[in-house]
Amino acid sequence: MAENQVKSKQRVADHGEVFTAEREVNAMIDMVKDESERIDSRFLEPACGEGAFLKEILRRKLAVVKKQYGKSPYDYERYSVLAVTSIYGVDILEDNAEICRQNLYDIWNAEYTKNAKDQANDKCRETIKFILRKNILCGDALTLLQNDGTPIVFAEWNLVMGDQIKRRDYEFAELLDGHEKQMSIFMIGWEYDEEINAYIPSPKKEYPLTDYRRLSEYD
Q1: Which of these, 42, 85, 105, 179, has the minimum number of CB atoms within 10 Å of its CB?
Q2: For every residue of 92-103, which 3-state class applies, written as one string?
């Protein structure tokens, strides 16, 4: 086992923490290559560590954004934001979750600064930091609870029109329940999505359409 795959023997013993090597990461993502290159295709890593899988997925998405929208700083900015909104992670260790957020931000910011040039702005950067705080959470994907004991809740972000994003918050446990074959009495009002073959729960909270540069105002 390579040294860079473990932080300490104690963490391996306590949490079974072993990071996946880059070669294996790329080989596994190549198995869903088409989805990894769809800007809005959502990915969740339930034991994300420092983000080995999520980093590579983001790089691939941003490469597509650059190819399709690189000639327009305005479009590049919007769709690079959309790419970040599609990436989710959970880790039981707070330091891993924080490093993962920072790693994803650094990848996005490097590409954003290079492509947007003099149109790059700090409002968009703050939006990305805000989205990552909502999408990369510290918790246990087995118990479906955050480390403070509250349910894991993920935000869904949809670029609806122009610069407007619609945010809806869903409880992770209910999203998993939606994939059960039989509907229960507790799922009344849920909608069935034929594309993903699952019931979609009612959101725990719904936010007004908001310019993506102002998302953090509705925390």
Answers
A1: 179
A2: CCHHHHHHHHHH
Q: Within a domain: residue 11?
A: no
Q: Where are the beta strands (DSSP E) in 9-108?
A: 43-45, 87-91
Residue 7 is assigned to a structural domain of this protein: no
User: What is the mean predicted confidence (pLDDT) over 62-86?
Assistant: 97
pLDDT digits 0-9 by tens, 36-58: 999 999 999 999 999 999 999 99
- Residue that has been written with the tokens 């990305």 in this structure: 128
- The answer to the question of residue 145 being in a domain is yes
Let me know if 31 is exposed, middle or buried by CB neighbors in 10 A (0-12, 13-18, 19+). exposed
Q: What sign for the dihedral angle of Cα 152, 110, 209, 39? A: negative
- The Cα–Cα gap between 72 and 49 comes to 34
Please tell me the predicted confidence (pLDDT) of residue 83: 98
pLDDT digits (tens, 9 = 90+) for 81-133: 999 999 999 999 999 999 999 999 999 999 999 999 999 999 999 999 999 99
Range of the domain at 77: 16-218
Structural domains of the chain, count: 1
Mean pLDDT along residues 179-186: 50
Whole-angstrom Cα distance, residue 55 to residue 50?
9
Exposed, middle or buried by CB within 10 Å (0-12, 13-18, 19+), for 87?
buried
- Of 75, 63, 72, nearest to 111 by C-alpha is 63
Domain annotation covers residue 152: yes
